Amino acid sequence: MSDTQARAILLLQDGTIAEGFAFGAIGTTSGEICFNTGMTGYQEVFTDPSYYGQIVIMNAVHVGNYGVVPEDVESDSVKVLGVIAKNLNENYSRSKATESLDAYLKKNNIVSIHGVDTRALVAHIRTKGAMNCIISSEIFDIEELKRRLAETPDMSGQELASKVSTKKPYELGDPNADIKIAVLDYGTKQNILKCMTERGAFVKVFPAKTPLAKIKSFNPDGYFISNGPGDPAAMDYAIDTVKEIMNENKPMFGICLGHQLLALANGIKTFKMHHGHRGLNHPVKNIITGRSEITTQNHGFGVDPESVKASDKVEITHVNLNDHSIEGIRVKGKPAFSVQYHPESTPGPHDSRYLFDDFIAMIKEHRQ
Ligand SMILES: NC(=O)CC[C@H](N)C(=O)O
Known about the structure:
The protein folds into 2 domains: 3-150, Carbamoyl-phosphate synthase small subunit, N-terminal domain (Glucose Oxidase, domain 1), CATH 3.50.30; 161-367, 3-Layer(aba) Sandwich (Rossmann fold), CATH 3.40.50.880. Helix content is 25%, strand content 31%. The chain has helices at 42-47, 101-107, 118-128, 142-150, 161-164, 190-197, 212-216, 236-248, 257-265, 305-309, 354-367; strands spanning 7-12, 17-24, 28-36, 54-58, 62-63, 82-85, 87-88, 111-114, 131-136, 170-172, 179-184, 201-206, 222-225, 252-255, 270-286, 292-303, 314-320, 326-331, 336-339. It is globular, with a radius of gyration of 20 Å. The N and C termini lie far apart (68 Å). The chain binds glutamine. The site of glutamine has 11 residues, from strand 16.
């Protein structure tokens, strides 16, 4: 029997059990179950540090069909804690591919399961909401799995950004560039940094808990607040840094976790969503321009709409056309704005990349 045919079991916090086959590493893993509706881009999803602490169901019926490519990564390793799939393709076809998804997940020590009814599972999560789960290809005693699952912490209240942030500062782009951007790394995706260097910026990425005084010695023209995993409300250190940056009055742009932190720094609440938004086709309306965009998303927390509407500090710039959730804000009288979705859109449509142009334009304007 090959490894891909070895037995695996999935147990959800509400007692739901699904049987399937193991892929990736043999072992046991637990975390928050979530689902991504994108039809492509599994490698970018699995290496996105925002997924740390989560086990992701891929809605696409096949995963692995185009293998993996060394450069298609958003960080240096796989960050999801497990993958749940319907059909795993052992054979792959893509000229640039260097290995199979199965081999890649094995190398990254990621325990995964395939052969489960992912449509039923996604419908279940959509109805019941986010919860923890455990996958095992070594323990089949349900009581033992239940015990281990009970020890898995709830996503609410977890500070995870510092676990995936860079340990040391690093730089990207042309050091002689006209524009310097300081990145507060809470688990940034590499393609976000690329969207800034491609627009002529020199970028320096700082570890999550770097004091602002140290970041200021880089003399940045603007600050970028990154995406990342965990509960934004559990990140007091980052909320304080964002508040300090607002006092600096320098241009600031936040994506996803960065958006939630900008809201929290302005006294707005965040909340745990029922099951979150993860996919490549979420319609968002820019209410400043009146134009709509199809966006890439990955979040399980959101900015509380009532608290934004009651705020005299920020205004809403973007709304989700599916559920009217808050997708973008800007701070009144300050050069600071943020979006809940992922404008770098890897994977996904490039409708929202204008936000990086806006950020660069804001920096240039602010310097005059
Ligand atoms: N992509 C992100 O930055 C995710 C932000 C946060 N961890 C959430 O789940 O909402």
